[in-house]
Structures are given as C-alpha cells and as structure tokens.
Amino acid sequence: MKYVSTRGNAPVLDFEQVTLAGLASDGGLYLPESWPSFTTEQIAALKGASYVDTAVAVMTPFVGDSLTAEDLRALCTQAYGRFAHGAVTPLVQLDHQHWLLELFHGPTLAFKDVALQLLGLLFERFLSGSERHIIVVGATSGDTGSAAIDALAGRAGVDIFMLHPKGRVSDVQRRQMTTVLAPNVHNIALEDASFDDAQALVKAMFNDPSFSSRFALSAVNSINWARLMAQVVYYFYAAVRLGAPERPVAFAVPTGNFGDVFAGYVAAKMGLPVAKLIVATNVNDILHRALSEGDYSQGVVVPTPSPSMDIQVSSNFERLLFDLGGRDGAALSGQMLGFEATRAMRLTNAQRDGASALFTSDRIDLDEMSLAMRWACEHAGEVIDPHTAIGLAAARRASLPADVPVVTLATAHPAKFREPVERATGVRPTLPARIGDLFDREERYASLPGTFEAVTAYIAERAVAK
C-alpha cells in the first residue's frame, strides 16, 4: 500500500513513512493510492469477532509490508487492553431505531483514544532500534491533546508539544493534558486564540522550511493517516452487530474537523453498506454549509459547550474533496490555496454530487443540544455529553427508512462536560474512579501569545534537533 498527497506534489510513501511524516511536504494530506475492497463474505466473517480481530482484518490492507499480521495484532492487543470495557466500543440501544456507539472507554474518556493509543505504539515501534527522534506538534480543541499525551508520555524517541486555546477547553480536558508531568510532554496554552488559530500554527510549522528542516516533525492530529485508519475499525465493528452486510446501517457523527466522519466514508469505500453518514455540527457550521449549499467559507468561531467542535476550518474535508474530485492533486491544490488566501470556497458540481450520495448534514443549536441530552436521559436512561447530543439530535431529525439502524457516535464521557450536562439533565456525572483524583493533581503548562514566532521559539528551545 502506497500513499499519495491530496495536493499531488509530495513523495509517495509507505505506511511507516506516512505515519511518521504526518502532513505531506506540499501542504496536503496523505491518502491511500487506492481503496482496499472487502467482499460481503469478508464483512460477514467479522460477525462475532473481537475488537482486536476486527481491527487486524480492517487495517491489514493499509499497513502493507510495514508490519506483519502478528505485529499488528500484538500492537492492537496492547492498545485496546487499556480500555475499561471488554467490547472496547460497545453499542447501547436507545429505542427501536437509534443506538449509541460508546467510544469513550479509553484512558482519557474520548474517542481519540481509539486511534491514539495505537498511534503511540506505532511511533515507538517504527523508531525503535534507530537514532531517530521525532517532534510531535499538535493542536487540540480538547480531546486530541489529552489522548495524544497519554499515548506518548514517557515513550522513547518522541517529544510532544500540544497547543490548546486558553480558556476554550473544559477543566477536565485541560487537566488531562496539563497534569501529565512526563519530561517529553510540553503543553502550550495559546492566549486569545481559537482552535483554528492553533491548527493554523501547526500547519505553518510543517510548511516553514527554516523551522521544519531543523526538526523531524510529525503529527497526531487527524491529518495523520494512521489515526483515521484506526477509526475505520469501529464502523465495521458496529455495523456487523446490527446486521451488515445483509442490511445497511446509518451513522450520525458529531464533528468539527471531519476526521471521524471521513473514517466512515473510508469504510463505505471499502464495501461496508453505509446507508448514510449524518454530519452533525454545532453553530460553527462550515461543514453543514459546505455539504448542504456548497459554501465552504470560514466564519468566526463561536465558543460553545461542545468545544471539540468549535472549528471553522475542517482539515480532513480536503481528503473528501480530493477523492470526490477525481483525485486531481493539481486542481485540489489550486482550490485549497484559493481558500487559504480568501477563506472562502465553492465546492465543484462533482464534489457536491459525490458528497450528496452518502452524506447529509445538520446544524444543531444550544437548545436542540440540551433537548437531546434531556431526551436520552429521560427516555433511555443514558447521560450523554454535549457533542454526542449534537449527533443524536441530528440522527433523530434525519429522514431514514424505519428499518435502517441509526448509530450515533458517542464521542466523549459526560463527566468531561459536567456543567452543561447538569444544566440539561439535572444529573452531575462523576469521573470514573481511574481518574477520580484529576483535580488534585499538579498542573504544568506554558501560556504563550498565539504567534508563530513565540510558539516556534518555545519549541526550538526544548526540542531535539535532527
């Protein structure tokens, strides 16, 4: 399996190289050269399989010669052995048609653990026995940071610098990052900044030759292909439990950066019968506008109780546009450079028509989010977080046949967002015992201006050069 850049002007890489590289050298994102295809018999064979067995089957075509099947199985066994539920990503029924796929049983209580626990082990495996040292630079709207830090803390050959917008993540999210005191972990709180600002800084570091040439930079955001690959697994795992491949399954995905729902698109391209992918946004609705009107134009980020979705530039959307636009790297490069210059873009007819075949979208406001939390609590006995509530609200409003199961991805444990959950439901969720002392732990982080000069100077003082 080889990987190509969405912008068509970066080296073709194998899986090991693309995992360590993160962002492509031409500013694009890596994708497989072609999509592997599963037959209905291969999908049916996953019924009753464990999560690890499913993961090995789904990911083997993507890793190519970089790992043996035995090595991949050992890494998956280790990664998912840290989850608090034996099913890793269990399904919970809400009513006759709606289900939750609980993705928050990992060590930091968010769906990012599913991919990042594996990615940390992949970094360690690919760096072992060499003198290489990589510098992981990431931006987080809350959950990626804590999951990446947990996965990489103390690992040899890696330093991680994680940027978050100061005051725009929940207290639990912040403390899950800033209380990890391993020497290779560096937290940076950006003053007067949004997640989009943090993400732009990360991309600028990769694209600045004077900085990127000094360090072996890598990424843990969903710009890293290995992260998306790992997320494809739970679409297969859920769907076969609800009747695939004999019947299609729909998924509602709360998303801001488009990574989690793009993994569902990959599953569909591989042959999984996905009836519809429902893209659920909060009031920061660039993805809803793009999919419903073809208008991909950046607005002003509005802080909400669902901070992981407070995003107005969705990095992974570029991957979808590339695949739907005939995989024309030069054309996509021009389209994205135009967006970066003007902060506005219209989707082409081919992109809009291709997206409408599989995707639908919805914009959920604060009242609708709260009502969904209250409905889940009162009618199904489930306490859900604000992000999951946005997905559920969109799922319940979608027009789908009654015989199609609709799975809402439950992306975070409700205790990570205690205040909005309590306001909506009257229930104050408690942290699981394994992190119950979180608010007693010492914090450590640096507060910096959200400028390229300040952040790169801070990293350069602490990072290991090539």
Reconstruct the topology from this structure:
Blueprint: E1 3-5, H1 15-21, E2 30-32, H2 40-44, H3 51-63, H4 69-80, E3 91-93, E4 98-102, H5 112-127, E5 134-139, H6 143-152, E6 158-165, H7 171-178, E7 185-191, H8 195-207, H9 209-212, E8 217-218, H10 225-241, E9 249-254, H11 259-269, E10 274-281, H12 286-293, H13 317-324, H14 329-342, H15 349-356, E11 359-363, H16 366-380, H17 386-397, E12 406-410, H18 418-425, E13 446-449, H19 452-462
Parallel strand pairs: 4-12, 5-6, 5-8, 6-7, 7-13, 9-10, 9-12, 10-11
Antiparallel strand pairs: 1-2, 3-4
Descriptive overview:
It is a single chain. The protein is an alpha/beta fold and 466 residues long. The chain has a domain at 86-107 and 232-425: 3-Layer(aba) Sandwich (Rossmann fold), CATH 3.40.50. Helix content is 43%, strand content 14%. The protein contains 19 helices and 13 strands. It has helices at residues 15-21, 40-44, 51-63, 69-80, 112-127, 143-152, 171-178, 195-207, 209-212, 225-241, 259-269, 286-293, 317-324, 329-342, 349-356, 366-380, 386-397, 418-425, 452-462; strands at 3-5, 30-32, 91-93, 98-102, 134-139, 158-165, 185-191, 217-218, 249-254, 274-281, 359-363, 406-410, 446-449. A 6-stranded mixed beta sheet has the order 3-4-12-9-10-11, with helices on both faces. A 5-stranded parallel beta sheet has the order 8-5-6-7-13, with helices on both faces. Helix 11 (259-269) links the parallel strand 9 and strand 10. Helix 3 (51-63) packs across helix 4, helix 3 packs across helix 10 and helix 6 (143-152) packs parallel to helix 7 (171-178). The longest helix has 17 residues, at 225-241. The chain is globular. The two termini are 28 Å apart. The mean pLDDT is 95. InterPro entries: Ser/Thr_deHydtase_PyrdxlP-BS, Thr_synth_N, Thr_synth_N_sf, Thr_synthase-like, Threonine_Synthase, TrpB-like_PALP, TrpB-like_PALP_sf. Residues 86-324 form the Tryptophan synthase beta chain-like PALP domain. It comes from Sphingomonas immobilis. Its EC number is 4.2.3.1. Residues 2-80 form the Threonine synthase N-terminal domain.
